Amino acid sequence: MYKYFIFIALLFFSFCIKSPAVLDPPYFILQYLQNVNSTENQGNNSQCPAPAGPFNPGAIFDTGQTLCWNGAGTVQTCALWLPGADGDFNNVPNARSFVGPTQHCKFTSDYTIFDPLHGLTWKACAQGQTGSDCSGSVAAPINWANANAGLSGSCTELNTLNSGEGYAGRTNWRIPTVRELASIVHYTNNPHIENAFFPSRTFTGRPYMTSTIDARAAGNNWAIDFSVAPPMDVRILSTAQATSIYLRCVSGNAMPATSFVDQGDGTIRDLNTGLLWAQCSEGQGGVGCMFGGIGSLDWNQARGNCNGKVLVPGRVWRLPNINELLSIIDYSDPNPILPTIDTTFFQTHPILQDIGPLLHMIAIKV
């Protein structure tokens, strides 16, 4: 298992973000319509009612965090003592929403969970587990080579079940990307998943596989560990492809590629999410963020700086939550951070050579 990983509980760079604006409907509807007839979306072979779109595959869920704590670990009133903390913003940018586990109307041994925001359908249990509560059998670890080749226990194998009609009548099951799997992380629950909907009983000992390659480490993929094991807690980590880990399969259109627009005023708009970000790391400014320098900030300093930020008049800025920050990470870029922010739009000079305790502040637009 690769030695580097992302601590979800920390923000290593400090960007400020302006709370989510109403997303431009034509853009995300276009994203959906472009994929309506794709192979990924043509996988429902059953006579069962299928959920109707449009969906927003690029949207971001709220983290599920509803409480705030001080440095001593005491619960505080968010708005009073910790304004701008994640727990101070419920259902931002979008409320969490899942349906299931749902028994298939024809293949009654098959159970799925539907995500109506992104339009994704998840297999209710990890591979190897069965039943409405996943109590049948045990999770079966698999390595990347076997999962990618469609061997026994893979997501591809699900497409051949039920005499070729596929698990739950779907023939487009696949390994989720790291962004898709991260969307079902719930930062309050133990383990860190929507346990009211995802009944899988196995979250310790091994992480869950994603199809996202670690561009910095040949032979590694990104994986997500949902377990609660301090001091690590939930984490995204780089895992050797030869290592057998757990697998949870997904069906539906993949999340779209990132789509950013430089507003020309020191901000970047994300067309997928509607969020407006500060282009430079906190402490930097000017064209290409060449002036100033990135300063080390603790969480309270970063939160305070974003809360008081005046970048674009009339806009309220705040520190992003972890889901928002992860949405601008470019997992395909090996240089030099693990992984890096999309440096085509978000410029930081100098770029760090490792993941330090540096906060990169972002401002989000609501």
Automatic annotation (TrEMBL):
Domain (Lcl C-terminal) ranges: 112-250, 266-349
Repeat in keyword set: no
Protein name (Swiss-Prot/TrEMBL): PF07603 family protein
Keywords: Signal
InterPro entries in the cross-refs: Lcl_C
Record keyword Protein biosynthesis present: no
Signal peptide: 1-23
